Amino acid sequence: MADPDPIRANRPVLALHVPEPPYRPGDAPDFSTIAVPPAGAAPRPDPACEARETFPLVTALVRVLDEAGKAVGPWDPRLDPDTLRTMLKDMKTVRVFDDRMYRAQRQGKTSFYMKCTGEEAIAVAAAFATDRDDIHFPTYRQQGLLVSRGYPLATMMNQIYSNAGDPLKGRQLPIMYSDKAHGFFSISGNLATQYPQAVGWAMASAIKGDSRIAMGWIGDGATAEGDFHCAMTFATVYQAPVILAVVNNQWAISSFSGIAGAEQATFASRAVGYGMAGLRVDGNDALAVYAAVRWAAERARGNKGPTLVEFFTYRAEGHSTSDDPSGYRPRDEATAWPLGDPIARLKAHLVGLGEWDEARDAALDAEIDATVRAAQKESEKVGILPNQGFDNIASMFDDVYAETPWHLAEQRELSLDEAREYLGHEPK
Ligand SMILES: Cc1ncc(C[n+]2csc(CCOP(=O)(O)OP(=O)(O)O)c2C)c(N)n1
Ligand SMILES: [Mg+2]
């Protein structure tokens, strides 16, 4: 409707642009418009360079593995075959773990699960590229960090089942792990909190004269939160020793990345406005991920400041067990995605080196399957979620206050009354 004011009547009517994903269910996805530069094409500046020297890289794509699985160009980290095989094993383990836990949720053994299918290279290679005592502030899609740092699979499952072996005592949503000893900060359900926490921890590390760095994680969608920008400001002002990762998997539940600004600029290019180093990386290329994190870690350790690293990838499955992506995107989008499968690409690389073959691959798959099954059996012996009843319900009040306030003491007594009634006997 035109503006009724006569002075404004001839001005154009204002309108908003509401981003829409290019493809919806039933459409044939065509990603040929996504620029995929050849592997090896991106230059590798010195990690101690001025931030602005990285600015051409915020719109490029750091890639090491070419279409034939060969490692090419200046970002090739030249990892030895044993390390490459361990990375492959960890990535495969994450995928098998995800599949089994997804099925466990469907079988009613837990309430909720989230997979990272298609994104396995990112957390696994980042775990390899950071030091064991650096601390990660992950989201719910970096289970690969725990797997690569040797956290017991059965303990992860205990958390998912909220059973008596759950170190978090059932107080966190399944998959929201926390383990200080493995440098894995508690996952927060509130998106984007990881960024200010990582920057704050990194600043504290510097203030204390420590040498450990932090790595913060966020999804494409969550970059739209204020916490992202607040963390970027602190990180750049104080040149905090932190790596800030954006996992751009194209989707935030059913919202596509355009809703968070991806139509206008790459996520990595946000580094430019802050005067921070930035890299845009093929997230389905384990070697590129490793090289980029290693570069940013070296920069942070040398007091050269933070780096924003965008990992360009695709969320191959639903957001969580509560989601049905067929309602908002074409079913075959994941297979049309141009960057391929990260596990298949690393495998092809090892085969090309003469360090891997189909027989070894099949043997590894069988070994991983047996390991994950054994962990599941061990964890389910301790218990699955529906069987966690009122036995120790009053413990939900423990570990919060040094001295329980009167109102919580009152609630604890009430919960014990309910438990007595439910159990027909005295609860533990
Ligand atoms: C502050 C906040 N807003 C909204 C939500 C609900 N929520 C949970 S996950 C999610 C999507 C996040 O997408 P993205 O950041 O791209 O990460 P991804 O799930 O793709 O890894 C939303 C909106 C939340 N948990 N916290
Ligand atoms: Mg996302």
What does this structure look like?
By secondary structure, this protein is of the alpha/beta class. It contains twelve helices and seven strands. Helices cover 36% and strands 7% of the residues. A hairpin with a 2-residue loop joins strand 4 and strand 5. Helix 1 runs antiparallel to helix 10 and helix 5 packs parallel to helix 6 (226-237). The model has no long low-confidence stretch (mean pLDDT 96). Bound molecules: thiamine diphosphate (TPP) and magnesium ion. Magnesium ion binds next to strand 4. Residues 139, 141, 189-191, 219-222, 225, 247, 249, 251-253, 315, 319 line the site of thiamine diphosphate.
Keywords, please?
2 domains; single chain; binds magnesium ion; 36% helix; binds thiamine diphosphate; 428 residues; alpha/beta; two-stranded antiparallel ribbon; Rossmann fold
Q: How would you summarize the topology of this molecule?
A:
Layout (H helix, E strand, L loop, with lengths): L80 H26 L13 H10 L5 E3 L5 H6 L4 H9 L32 H14 L6 E6 L6 H12 L4 E7 L2 E2 L2 E2 L13 H5 L2 E6 L3 H16 L5 E6 L20 H4 L5 H11 L5 H25 L23 H18 L5
Parallel strand pairs: 1-2, 2-3, 3-7, 6-7
Antiparallel strand pairs: 4-5
Helix pairs in contact: 1-2, 1-10, 1-11, 2-8, 4-11, 5-6
The structure holds thiamine diphosphate and magnesium ion.
The tally of helices reads: 12
Note the beta-strand portion. 5-15%
- Helicity level: 25-40%
Question: Using only CA atoms, what is the Rg?
Answer: 24 Å
Q: At the first level of CATH, what is the class of the largest domain?
A: Alpha Beta
